[in-house]
Each structure stands twice: as structure tokens, then as C-alpha cells.
């Protein structure tokens, strides 16, 4: 098992890509801390995934709240003694065109998708520096690379995440910490279910592989990047998009 003995924190892990990543990491031998905004959903996911491994715990975390992020780190260290991997997966959308986007829609997406990644990354990096090792994996998007109609706020955050990823890779490499990002294409998750069916069909037709991605496709990428198989990879942005941007 490629993650045997490693301890991972996964944000936004109660459903979708985060949940699939938690499941994959558990199957690969990791101990996992499930983090999400809803205590009810955290508890339900932990109880479900205990069927795979007992090396799982959960905590309610609002990634925009630094006190809760710090408590997440303390909880993980108390439970498992170290932190080998952080998957910064938590994120939201609040779509609108530039001329119609409200300040609240802008601020909410910026706070969760950008400030939340910063909060978790900074808090966990301090632990990893003391350990002399660790992996931080950030969720960006093909939208962050190429933009998308009606997603000014989301595109800005996901481009910002790429900037943070490359900066952290330069800063933390000498401390034994690797930092990479994964850029999913259109994945079948509760987030994309909000999109009109005709848009999803258009995206499916546009992709050379003629399908939308599944959460497991992204989880597999995270598992590889978290493992020692990727020990010479840092500062990279791995697109997992079915070729939709070709």
C-alpha cells in the first residue's frame, strides 16, 4: 500500500472528490482526518468509511476560521501524532457573470477557496517543517488555467491557488516538503450537479475521452502525488480533465 503509515488531513471530505480521496487514502494504508463544514456530514462519512479502516477520525472545520483550522491541526496531532499530507480540497462556487456578480458572491468564494487554502497550508506547514517532511496538495481547476464563462470569482481563486502552490514549493522544498496542485476538469460531484444538463453534455462531447470525470479519477491523482512515487515532483499542476482543454 503506497500510503502505509502516513497521516493525511483532507478538507471538504464529507462528499464528492474529498470523500473519494479519503476512501482511496484509507485503502492505500493512510490514517485520515475528515474535515468539513457540517458536523452531521463529517460523522456520517467517518461512520461509512470505518468499514474500510478504523484509522479515521473527523472534525468540523470552517477553513475560513483560523481558530478552527488550528484546532484541526491539534486534533490530528493528538489523534495520530504527525501530519504527512494535507489535501486542500474544500471549495465552493457562486457563479454569475461579471456584470451581475454581487460583492457577497465574490467575497464568499474568495474566502473559502483562497483564504481557506492559505489558512490550512500555513497551519500544517509549520508542523511539517518541524518534522522535516510532508506533502501539501491543493485543489485548483482547469477553470483556473483557462477561465470559464460566469466564474470570475472561482477562476480568480483557482489561479491564485496555482500561484500559492508554486510559491510554497519554492519556499518549503529545502524543508523536505513537496507542494503540488491537481486541476480537475468537469467531474460529476454535488457541485457540478448544479450546472444545467445541456452544459454537462456539451462538456462531455468536448472532451476527447467523451465522458465527464469521476471523483475517483481525482482521488487517484492525489494518492500518487502523496506517495513516495512522486518524491521528485513539486511545484507541478497536474491536469486531470479528460483532455477537455486540448
UniProtKB/TrEMBL annotation:
What PROSITE patterns does this protein map onto? ADH_SHORT
- E.C. numbers: 1.1.1.100
As its record notes, the protein acts as a catalyst of: a (3R)-hydroxyacyl-[ACP] + NADP(+) = a 3-oxoacyl-[ACP] + NADPH + H(+)
Xref: InterPro entries: 3oxo_ACP_reduc, KR_dom, NAD(P)-bd_dom_sf, Sc_DH/Rdtase_CS, SDR_fam
Give me any GO biological process, just one. Answer: fatty acid biosynthetic process
The record ties this protein, via SMART domains, to: PKS_KR
Keywords recorded for this protein, A-Z: Fatty acid biosynthesis, Fatty acid metabolism, Lipid biosynthesis, Lipid metabolism, NADP, Oxidoreductase
Q: Where does NADP(+) bind?
A: 12-15, 89, 154-158, 187
Q: Which domain of life is it from?
A: Bacteria
The active-site annotation reads 154
**For the Ketoreductase domain, which residue ranges apply?**
6-185
Query: Could you tell me which NCBIfam families the record lists for this protein?
Result: 3oxo_ACP_reduc (TIGR01830), PRK05653.1-3 (NF004198), PRK07231.1 (NF005559), PRK12826.1-2 (NF009466)
Self-association or partners: how does it assemble?
Homotetramer.
The protein's matches in PANTHER family, at most eight in alphabetical order, are given as: (3R)-3-HYDROXYACYL-COA DEHYDROGENASE, SHORT-CHAIN DEHYDROGENASES/REDUCTASES FAMILY MEMBER
Q: Which family does it belong to?
A: Belongs to the short-chain dehydrogenases/reductases (SDR) family.
| Biological role | Catalyzes the NADPH-dependent reduction of beta-ketoacyl-ACP substrates to beta-hydroxyacyl-ACP products, the first reductive step in the elongation cycle of fatty acid biosynthesis.
* Name this polypeptide is given: 3-oxoacyl-[acyl-carrier-protein] reductase
Amino acid at each position: 500500500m503506497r500510503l502505509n503509515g502516513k497521516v493525511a488531513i483532507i478538507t471538504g471530505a464529507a462528499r464528492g472528490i474529498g470523500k473519494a480521496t479519503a476512501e482511496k487514502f484509507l485503502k492505500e494504508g493512510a490514517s485520515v482526518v475528515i474535515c468539513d463544514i457540517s458536523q452531521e456530514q463529517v460523522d456520517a462519512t467517518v461512520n461509512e468509511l470505518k468499514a474500510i479502516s478504523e484509522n479515521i477520525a473527523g472534525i468540523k472545520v470552517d477553513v475560513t476560521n483560523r481558530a478552527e483550522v488550528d484546532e484541526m491541526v491539534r486534533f490530528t496531532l493528538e489523534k495520530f501524532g504527525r501530519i504527512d499530507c494535507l489535501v486542500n480540497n474544500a471549495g465552493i462556487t457562486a457563479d454569475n457573470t461579471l456584470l451581475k456578480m454581487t460583492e457577497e458572491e465574490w467575497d464568499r468564494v474568495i474566502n473559502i477557496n483562497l483564504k481557506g487554502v492559505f489558512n490550512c497550508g500555513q497551519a500544517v506547514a509549520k508542523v511539517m517543517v518541524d518534522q522535516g517532511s510532508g506533502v501539501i496538495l491543493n485543489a485548483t481547476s482547469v477553470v483556473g488555467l483557462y477561465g470559464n464563462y460566469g466564474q470570475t470569482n472561482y477562476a480568480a481563486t483557482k489561479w491564485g491557488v496555482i500561484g500559492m502552490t508554486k510559491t510554497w514549493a519554492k519556499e518549503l522544498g529545502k524543508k523536505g516538503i513537496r507542494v503540488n496542485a491537481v486541476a480537475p476538469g468537469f467531474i460529476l460531484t454535488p457541485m457540478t450537479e448544479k450546472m444545467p444538463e445541456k452544459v454537462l453534455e456539451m462538456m462531455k462531447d468536448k472532451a476527447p475521452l467523451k465522458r465527464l470525470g469521476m471523483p475517483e479519477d481525482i482521488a487517484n491523482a492525489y494518492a500518487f502525488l502523496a506517495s513516495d512515487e512522486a518524491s521528485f515532483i513539486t511545484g507541478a499542476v497536474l491536469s486531470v480533465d479528460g483532455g477537455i482543454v486540448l
